[in-house]
From TrEMBL:
SUPFAM superfamilies: MFS general substrate transporter (SSF103473). GO terms for molecular function: transmembrane transporter activity. The chain crosses the membrane at residues 20-40, 60-78, 85-103, 109-126, 147-166, 172-195, 215-238, 250-268, 280-298, 304-325, 337-360, 366-385. It comes from the Bacteria. Keywords: Membrane, Transmembrane, Transmembrane helix. This is MFS transporter.
Length: 408
């Protein structure tokens, strides 16, 4: 059995060769490279390349360009299957990470970041599309939680090895980047020969899809992308620049994040199934408002690390945005809308790292207070999600409903 020799229907495959296990292993393969790259990125930039907030902002904006162009995935699907594009994306991710350390210049880091990012973002686009097509609506959130948990386990492996081995064996950036990228490529070879080609569910539109009734999903996705940049770019940079975290200390912090995600993600998925997307997202955004305000004024390294772990723990709740869309979407819209959604998610991501990089030079606190304001907007939007979303019931304008009249 291999991807090239056998086709299978996703509903008929069971056991370790089922689509959900394939999605889990792909998530793990992606994280082996990306987690290591993310762990080393800030230290590599500061210690090897002497980056400041300005350069890290430029590099992060370059990283987000492929995300902004994710809508082009729908045109690539005219030439290849979604599962094929997911595999090609993992290939680019692995290669981009593996060669990073061999180009220790600002320009080299920008180029390898771009290659890695093309793989990462197109993989994420395809993984989201395939998940929403292959997983049953009633249990999709729980299955996505398990997939996140496997990705978190792979993060634990990457962070744990770096945490233990960095000082012990005096590893270099070049060696760790090469090993991390090579592991992703090795897992990819296994996937190609161990799994068949799974057919997609409903045939997908091979054109861009923008529908008025999906506007709340687009808005939530846009705000999530804008707000996430504050965390991914500047919270980690804060730990290195202000509090002087070394590579193994950053790895230890990420190790805690991975452990929390591995344990919490499946539980969060089940809670979303039980309580619904609206309540889950309202809880997330209230928590993020408090975290970002604390970031703005933190002066203690231990407290900053605690905020970083708490902030990261909220990430799994973003599953609710995906399952909200799954419930309201025309099944044929899923693949093209996944690309459009990633583009919307990255509109702000292209300019926020650069613009806020300059703001950072003047006031780091202002960067995090802006993140709190974004979380407030997301909170308002989340309250518009119906308690039971479905096609034809995409938005609940609760504030327009007339108040109950007292009985006479």
């Amino acid at each position: 059995m291999s991807y090239f020799t056998q086709n299978a229907h996703p509903n008929e495959a069971t056991g370790w060769r089922s689509p959900v296990v394939l999605l889990m292993i792909m998530a793990g393969a992606m994280q082996l490279s990306f987690a290591a790259w993310w762990n080393l990125m800030n230290n590599f930039a500061v210690q090897e390349l002497d980056f400041t907030g300005r350069e890290i902002g430029i590099q992060q904006s370059i990283r987000e360009i492929p995300g902004f162009l994710s809508f082009l995935a729908v045109y690539l699907l005219l030439m290849m299957r979604e599962q094929t594009l997911a595999y090609v994306s993992l290939l680019l991710l692995g290669v981009g990470v593996a060669v990073t350390g061999y180009f220790p210049t600002a320009f080299g880091f920008y180029v390898t970041t771009l290659i890695m990012s093309i793989g990462f973002h197109y993989y994420e686009t395809m993984a989201q599309s395939l998940s929403l097509q292959w997983l049953p609506k009633a249990t999709a959130a729980a299955s996505m939680g398990k997939i996140l948990s496997v990705g978190a386990f792979a993060q634990l492996i990457a962070y744990g090895v770096i945490f233990v081995a960095w000082k012990m064996f005096e590893l270099s950036f070049t060696v760790v980047f090469a090993i991390a990228g090579g592991l992703t490529l090795a897992v990819l070879v296994f996937l190609i020969f161990a799994y068949p080609h799974f057919r997609e569910g409903v045939p997908q539109h091979k054109k861009l899809i923008l529908r008025k009734r999906y506007w709340l999903y687009y808005a939530l996705t846009f705000m999530a992308g804008a707000r996430r940049q504050i965390f991914t770019v500047f919270a980690g940079f804060l730990m290195v620049e202000r509090f002087g975290y070394d590579v193994h200390e950053v790895a230890g912090l990420f190790l805690l994040n991975g452990a929390f995600n591995m344990v919490l993600a499946p539980k969060i998925g089940r809670l979303i199934v039980r309580f619904g997307e609206r309540k889950a997202l309202v809880l997330e955004y209230i928590g993020l408002i408090l975290v970002f305000v604390c970031y703005a004024f933190v002066t203690n390294a231990t407290l900053a690390a605690s905020l970083y772990v708490i902030d990261h723990a909220f990430f799994a709740i973003a599953i609710a945005i995906k399952t909200y869309f799954q419930k309201i979407a025309d099944p044929a819209d899923i693949a093209p809308t996944a690309g459009v959604a990633f583009t919307i998610n990255h509109i702000a991501a292209v300019f926020i790292p650069v613009a806020f990089g300059f703001i950072w030079l003047v006031s780091p606190a202002a960067v995090f207070l802006a993140g709190a304001a974004m979380a407030v907007v997301s909170l308002v939007l989340a309250t518009l999600i119906p308690s039971n979303p479905e096609e034809g019931r995409e938005v609940d304008f609760w504030y327009r409903k007339p108040s109950a009249q007292p009985a006479e």
